[in-house]
Specification:
- The complex is a heterotrimer.
- Chain A contains 13 helices and 14 strands.
- By secondary structure, chain A is of the alpha/beta class.
- In chain A, strand 11 (about 350), helix 13 and strand 12 (about 370) form a beta-alpha-beta unit.
- Chain A is globular.
- Chain A starts with a helix and ends with a strand.
- By secondary structure, chain B is mainly α.
- Chain B starts with a helix and ends in an 11-residue tail after the last helix.
- Chain B has a single domain (about 5-120, about 135-290), classed as Orthogonal Bundle (ABC transporter involved in vitamin B12 uptake, BtuC), CATH 1.10.3470.
- In chain B, strands 1-2 form a two-stranded antiparallel sheet.
- Chain B has helices at about 5-40, 45-65, 70-90, 100-120, 145-170, 170-180, 180-185, 190-215, 225-240, 245-260, 275-290; strands at about 135-140, 140-145.
- The radius of gyration of chain B is 19 Å and the shape is globular.
- The mean pLDDT of chain B is about 85.
- By secondary structure, chain C is mainly alpha-helical.
- Chain C is about 70% helix and about 0% strand.
- Chain C has helices at about 5-35, 40-55, 70-90, 95-115, 120, 140-165, 170-180, 180-185, 190-215, 230-240, 245-265, 275-295, and strands at about 130, 220.
- Classes of the chains: A alpha/beta, B mainly alpha, C mainly alpha.
- At the A-C interface, helix 1, helix 2, strand 2, helix 3 and helix 4 of A face helix 1, helix 9, strand 2, helix 10 and helix 11 of C.
């Protein structure tokens, strides 16, 4: 009895502490953006550079005069742990306890959908996912609160198919990871490729995190296709598959999407072994300095590679959210949503990564601005989606170089 | 009938990978089995102890510039010591309590080890050696990775050493006694705490090797041991709870079945779709439990 | 207190209630009959997916289109989990307790793998979205409050019913079986049948928790049913709360969920340079706090002794 009373008090004390801690934050004068990221869990590998990318945007804003009249812009991180239950709890912390002005996140489609439906839409706050590619998000009944800066799966698959056919690669083997990212792209790729006349000699879905894919590779290599299309995350299965494919002499040419376009691949396989590899990845529209501007700022700030997954998208989402807040002139959530649509629509004066000072002056002068990002033109359609250009990448001199843009 | 080319393919693509997976399972399962036999609880943090071993080896490789195989003994010692430390801090307080509490404690230890690894080494997957290792080619077609030969040899050596220890040495006999007849063991003056100490040292050391092998064969990341945990439990059950030699056999068998199941035994297609490869370990485990609950090797035999 | 803070506290309370239901279901199996179910994730998943499939509108991505009312969907999930529980019980109950644990893990993992791979039915790794939630048309915070009240009512009802059952003749028989199943067998009681009944009931309650959770999250996918946040968490809640009794189940749910969620409020306060690492520190903290709770507060004074699964000998015999 005594012991359980002890626990009861402990629980009660914890609850009281939480209830007390929460309103204390509301008194802050800073402007808060919530980062609803899957920090631990299935995609933990990707997250640290993404947090850096968000920090870059915030640091640029604060260095160039702050937000909403000199206030400090801060981010609050809440970890979804890769699970929808915790995502809803984390979103609640950000939206209701911390009362952030906007939410960037989540990264996985599942956590994004759960948090969007359970917390974001009822509360009415802007949510911009940098990486959720599920088509379901497009038509979600979300009162226009949910946006994303990455094209839906439905987009990247056909583009990849066209790129291959244009290059004369008419027969491939396809393997894709069993996660929401890869399954979606594989589906649309398969359909489009076959329609264009391509042949898929083998089509295998694989589980991530296994140490041996040799049996899958043996299957895939039958029929002697020209290349292996590998839709997977480098750190989860991509690197292992490429490694075993090369060791077993199954394939020499690899074709991947942005999930594979990770410095990890170059580091662990070696650029020499990837001379014929090709990648598609959402990128800035051709001819804009946005991507370069971002990469320059990122490498300057962190002295580390810019070839990490999705950092451009995270940067774009954070920066455009800041622009929207500034345009709205307050932390009123409805105003921010309207401002986001405004800033993310064409016709205004172009503002790119890092152009905070320029943007502030234009906004103060009442002029319309249009943000063109490092990974997307960031022009939202009626569903809150973006189209985006898909860049074609190869490996040159030990890092990824964009060599063109593929349009469907 | 297989022609020689298909046979070589079979050996290189299915048999040997199966053996490698089997070695990793075996080394992890032995530790789980020992711990279960002597401490009577399922050590859920064992996978993360394996992960720790893999990372310790990585650190030694960085510091000393040695090849990973040379770093293995150091990783074994380090992990063994950590294992003993974990016992002292988190499991010993519950020696006299129902073992379910130790199981729950091990869940918490699992979280602690994993997050500590993420804090210290970060979350980026790593390799002991970058680049592709060109295989040795036999008979014009059979491709063998040098590291695989080492892994099989080292596993065989360790299992043999363990067998000798358990059957010949005094501490080995004491361990068997505590596992089979604990009351009798205590009465005859065997120091249970000494036995427990050795169990953690051995279990931790073997787990470290399993972790290094995992890292060598694919990559080193903070979830790698946890991802192996359930198959390792399955292997321990397969071999008969509390029988380390059985666990070793169980691990090998499970690894082989997992890889061989996707071979196209009948016709053109894999017998088991690669999607369900993971589920096979569990299916075997469940079927075995129902059909032959004492495991492949009878009960508690060393 | 402003709406935001209120909503956050409501969300905490709702999750606590959902986990309390899950843990109460577990305690039916563990407290009443000493059955070690380590496959909670499977029953939870069955309950969740069943109601999701039955209550969502037509979709090209998954089986659906039935658009049944929510209570019916949940009921179906409960029944299906019960059926699964019964099947597992009949097959596995002859096994010694540790083996039962491993068998249930295996079955749960196979089930989850099937749910993940059979995407025609479940949309595989992409999951099922737009699951309806009760009271979602209402303004904030009333919708959330109503859902919380309903869930809390379920907890109270379950608790009362299970306590009542414990003191009933059925419950007494089960206790007798738990104490000494050979004697009970000799006295003419069908031990397996009793155990199967309580296992089935426990599984049904787990299905209920899964169904309610699916409606709360409005989404279900493989990540929502993975073992750490279902099986593992329920066991930790039960044992940390006070092994083997219903009060412990509810208390444990509250304590552990508050630790799980609340630790992040602490680590969020770390300086911005620590932002990348704060999430790992938080998980470490959860593990550490768990050890502290177990070591400082492990019960010994509760009148109800926790059940011992039948084991031959043990160096760590309970005092």
């Amino acid at each position: 009895m005594l012991r359980s009373l002890g626990k009861f008090f402990l629980a009660g004390a914890a609850a009281a502490a939480i209830a007390a801690a929460v309103p204390a934050q509301a008194a802050d004068d800073d402007v808060k953006i919530g980062l609803l990221f899957d920090v631990t869990g299935p995609v933990a590998n990707f997250v640290p550079p993404m947090l850096d990318a968000a920090k870059l945007a915030v640091d640029q804003v604060n260095a160039q005069g702050g937000i909403l009249g000199g206030k400090k812009l801060v981010t609050v991180v809440a970890d979804t742990q890769g699970s929808p239950q915790v995502a809803v709890d984390a979103a609640n912390k950000l939206v209701n306890a911390e009362k952030v002005a906007a939410v960037i996140g989540a990264l996985l489609s599942g956590t994004t959908l759960a948090s969007a439906q359970s917390v974001i839409v009822p509360a009415g706050v802007v949510q911009i996912s940098p990486t959720a590619t599920t088509p379901v998000l497009s038509n979600l009944k979300d009162d226009d609160w949910v946006f994303r800066v990455v094209p839906s799966d439905s987009y990247q698959g056909p583009v990849l198919a066209k790129m291959l056919m244009d290059k004369g690669i008419t027969s491939v083997a396809l393997t894709y990871a069993n996660n929401d990212y890869a399954v979606g792209i594989a589906e649309t790729f398969r359909e489009a490729y076959k329609k264009l006349g391509g042949t898929i000699t083998a089509d295998i879905r694989h589980e991530e995190k296994k140490s041996s894919y040799r049996t899958e590779l043996a299957q895939l290599a039958k029929g002697k296709p020209q290349a292996l299309v590998l839709i997977a995350f480098a750190g989860e299965s991509g690197v292992t598959i490429v490694k075993e494919a090369l060791e077993g002499a199954f394939f020499t040419t690899f074709i991947g999407t942005d999930g594979l376009r990770d410095k990890l691949l170059i580091d662990q396989i070696g650029a020499d072994n990837l001379k014929t590899a090709m990648f598609t990845s959402p990128s800035a529209p051709p001819g804009t300095p946005s991507l370069e501007a971002f990469e320059k700022a990122y490498t300057a700030a962190y002295q580390t590679t810019k070839d990490k997954l999705f950092i451009q998208q995270v940067y774009d989402a954070t920066f455009i959210a800041a622009l929207a807040i500034q345009k709205a002139g307050s932390t009123d959530r409805k105003a921010i949503r309207d401002a986001l649509r405004d800033v993310g629509s064409p016709g205004g004066e172009v503002v790119g990564p890092g152009d905070w000072t320029k943007a502030m002056h234009l906004i103060a002068a009442g002029k319309k601005i249009t943000y063109v990002g490092a990974a997307c033109p960031c022009q939202f359609d009626k569903n809150g989606d973006v189209a985006g250009a898909i860049g074609e990448f190869v490996i040159e001199e030990g890092s990824y170089k964009q060599v063109g843009v593929v349009t469907p | 009938m297989m022609d020689s080319s298909a046979l070589l393919d079979f050996i290189g693509l299915y048999l040997i990978p199966g053996l490698i997976t089997g070695c990793i399972y075996a080394l992890g399962a032995i530790g789980v089995s020992l711990l279960f036999g002597i401490l009577r609880f399922a050590h859920f943090a064992h996978g993360d102890v394996m992960t720790l071993g893999g990372y310790l080896a990585l650190t030694f490789v960085w510091w000393l510039g040695w090849p990973v195989l040379a770093a293995i003994p150091l990783a074994m010692i380090g992990t063994a010591l950590v294992a003993v430390g974990l016992d002292r801090a988190f499991y010993r307080p519950f020696r006299r309590r129902p073992t379910i509490i130790s199981v729950i404690a091990s869940f918490g230890v699992m979280l602690m080890i994993r997050s500590a690894i993420q804090l210290i080494w970060g979350v980026e997957p790593m390799q002991y050696k970058a680049g592709i290792e060109r295989p040795i080619i036999l008979f014009g077609q059979l491709r063998l990775q040098e590291r695989h030969i080492w892994m099989i040899a080292i596993t065989a050596l360790l299992v043999l050493a363990l067998h000798l220890m358990l059957s010949r040495s005094r501490i080995g006999r004491a361990m068997r006694a505590v596992s089979d007849e604990p009351d009798l063991a205590r009465v005859t003056g065997i120091s249970t705490e000494r036995v427990i100490l050795v169990t953690w040292l051995v279990g931790g050391a073997l787990a470290a090797v399993a972790g290094v092998f995992l890292g060598m064969d694919s990559k080193i990341d903070s979830y790698m041991g946890w991802d192996m945990l359930l198959p390792i439990f399955a292997a321990a059950i397969l071999g008969g709870i509390g029988s380390p030699m059985g666990a070793a056999a169980g691990g090998l068998v499970l690894g082989l079945i997992e890889e061989l199941s996707t071979y196209n035994w009948i016709g053109e297609n894999p017998l088991v779709p690669p999607d369900y490869k993971l589920g096979l370990a569990f299916a075997i485990m469940v079927i075995l439990l129902i059909w032959r609950p004492t495991g492949l090797l009878r009960g508690r035999q060393f | 207190m402003d709406t935001g803070t209120l909503l956050y506290l409501i969300s905490l309370a709702t999750m606590i209630c959902l986990y309390a239901i899950l843990t109460l279901g577990l305690n039916l199996q563990w407290g009443f009959a000493g059955l070690f179910n380590a496959g909670i994730a499977g029953f939870f998943a069955v309950g969740a997916y069943t109601t999701s499939i039955l209550t969502t509108p037509e979709s090209p991505d998954h089986l659906g289109g039935f658009s049944l009312p929510i209570p019916l969907g949940i009921l179906a999930g409960v029944l299906l989990s019960a059926v699964l529980g019964y099947a597992v019980a009949r097959i596995c109950l002859r096994l010694k307790s540790d083996y039962l644990a491993i068998a249930t893990i295996g079955i749960a993992e196979i089930l989850r793998l099937v749910l993940k791979n059979e995407s025609w039915m479940t949309n595989g790794s992409r999951g099922i979205a737009e699951i309806p939630r009760p009271f979602e048309g209402m303004a904030q915070p009333w919708g959330e409050l109503c859902f919380l009240l309903v869930t809390a009512a379920v907890v109270v009802l379950l608790y009362a019913t299970i306590e009542r059952a414990w003191h009933s003749p059925w419950g007494r028989t089960l206790r007798a079986i738990r104490e000494n199943d050979e004697a009970a067998e000799a006295a003419g009681k069908d031990v397996i049948a009793y155990r199967a009944q309580v296992f089935t009931l426990g599984s049904a309650v787990m299905g209920l928790a899964g169904g309610l959770m699916a409606h709360y999250l409005k989404f279900i996918g493989p990540d929502a049913t993975e073992p750490i946040l279902t099986t593992f968490l329920a066991w930790v809640m039960l044992i940390a709360g006070g092994s083997g009794n219903n009060r412990g189940a509810v208390l444990g749910a509250a304590l552990i969920w508050l630790i799980w969620s609340g630790t992040e409020l602490l680590t969020q306060r770390l300086p911005p340079d620590w932002q990348t690492r704060s999430s790992y520190i938080r998980v470490f903290l959860i593990g550490l706090l768990l050890q502290i709770v177990l070591q400082r507060f492990s019960q010994g004074l509760l009148p109800e002794r926790p059940p011992q699964p039948k084991r031959s000998e043990s160096p760590s015999k309970p005092v």
